[in-house]
Model the fold of this input.
Amino acid sequence: MAVLKPEERRRVFERLANIREIVFGIQDGVLTTAGVLAGLSGAVSGRSEVILAALASTAAGALSMGAGAYLGTRAETEVLRSELKRAREEAQGQPYVLQESLLGALANEGLTREASYRVVKLLSSAPQALFSTAEEKIYGLGGATFGNPVAEGLLMGVAFVAGALVPLLPFIFFSSIRSGLIAGIAATAAVLFGVGYFVEGRLADKPGWLSGLRFLSIALGAAVAGYVIGLAIAPLGTVPGG
Amino acid sequence: MLKPGDDAPPFDLPCAFDDHISHVSLDGIRSEMVVLFFYPRDFSFICPTEVIGFHKLQPAFKQEHTSIVGVSVDDPETHRRWARELGGLSYPLLADSDGRLARSFGAFDETEKVAMRAAFIFDNRRKIVYAVASSINVGRSVAETLRVVRALRTGRPCPADWQPGDQIGPADLKY
Done:
């Protein structure tokens, strides 16, 4: 297998940093839509009404999740950048504090104290190099820490739609509600297992079957728990005006 | 930590001085007074400010018949390289590798396993006449140490913030 250049490897890391949005979006899209289809199939007799409701739920869910990811990432990035600016201003006033901390961090990673001193002294000749190394070694911040709000929002929305289509497409293709629902739930389980198998198993080099089963059981477990809680609180009464 | 009036613990330790490794003992120091300062580590970004500070003011200390000795837990070879890194020092750096000397002064940080940032001045009877210690992250004022040496050498009471040329108290005034 060809060895990637460090710059190419960096781009791989940046792409992988978005795996959270993809997994989150797919999982939520799959389960929300499966839930809507299952719930409405029992309550509404018309197949087209169920499909329309699921499409509306998908659109609303994708927009909501996308907006949530955008706003969350934007807030996180702004707060981190502001804190980092404050840290840089402090470091400019008392550079030796940052230098001493970086020296300690490098020494903890195996360099001798003398070698660490020389590295930090060299880095200090270019303040930007000193700060960016300190940001990673002392504050634990890397380039991937600062997400792109627009990209993450779009990715979350698209992942949600992709997930929602999993139970929805069989429902559209099968003429009977019952067959569509069964096929949709089977596809849902397969995709949940597949996401776990691929993301944790293949990308993270963990045992694939185990990863797939864990993902499936956690995702379905959450859905079943929600259903059971719904059953438990049902006897408490009806919604006012309902 | 030892205080004014206590005897300075004797020592005979390897040191780096003038780009060579040698030995320094308390008995071998002939000057009237001695400034012995402990610092945590060589190759640090805080310590050099005072290590260099003592180097720069060494002629003034010499004029006051006072020797300067720096001590840390680093070995003599590291001291030699550190002194060279700083452009050469005009006083020896003692290697208290096991921290025994710092412990005998009560100036050893057992958590960090390094000497505290402490300084002592001994008189001609090698009794401690001044002792100060600060947080490991705060450097000392070398100029203040020199001011205290000058005040001590008057042998007379000196008021707060006394500077050479200022009035001094009568010889029989105790407090």
In short: Chain B touches chain A through ten residues (CB under 8 Å).
